[in-house]
Write a structure and sequence with these properties.
It is built from seven helices and seven strands. It has 141 residues and is α/β, with parallel strands linked by helices. Strand 5, helix 5 and strand 6 form a beta-alpha-beta unit.
């Protein structure tokens, strides 16, 4: 059984809810990543959400807002999705496909230990699994 921990990109850099989106964009550029988990300032282990590069463009810049004046908390919406480090690949796919998400944080002992992205999936799935994932996440409904 392949687990989330075995296929994830290990390590996670965080934003706090009060960090601005300019900082988020700079971190994404410097780390060459497209998403960052957002933590509660009072408890850096508590996942509050995830901010993507697309969120910054669509929900901030395209709305005429300045990234330096918009906080991560303003973009975090709803309950953050995540998977347990011991979840098998089918559970990971179920979570990602069911919520039509392309990245999912991996949590172990209530702490984010990594992230699974489409690139991670592509390295570990069969062609049929990749095709099903793409259809479920990208197909218009």
């Amino acid at each position: 059984m392949t687990t989330a921990k075995e296929i994830m990109h290990p390590g996670a850099h965080w934003l706090t809810k009060s960090d601005n989106l300019e900082r988020a964009a700079q971190m994404m550029r410097d780390l060459n990543i497209g998403a960052l988990p957002v933590a509660d300032e009072n408890n850096n282990d508590r996942l509050c959400g995830i901010i993507t590069d697309r969120d910054i463009v669509v929900k901030c810049v395209a709305e005429g807002r300045a990234p330096a004046e918009c906080t991560a908390a303003e973009l975090c919406e709803g309950t953050p999705r995540w998977v347990d480090a011991n979840a098998d690949i089918e559970e990971v796919l179920h979570e990602m496909e069911g919520h039509r998400i392309k990245r999912v944080p991996v949590v172990e002992n209530k702490r984010v230990v990594g992230i699974i992205s489409e690139a991670d999936l592509a390295q570990h799935l069969t062609d049929d699994q990749i095709a099903e994932f793409a259809e479920m996440v990208y197909a218009r409904r």
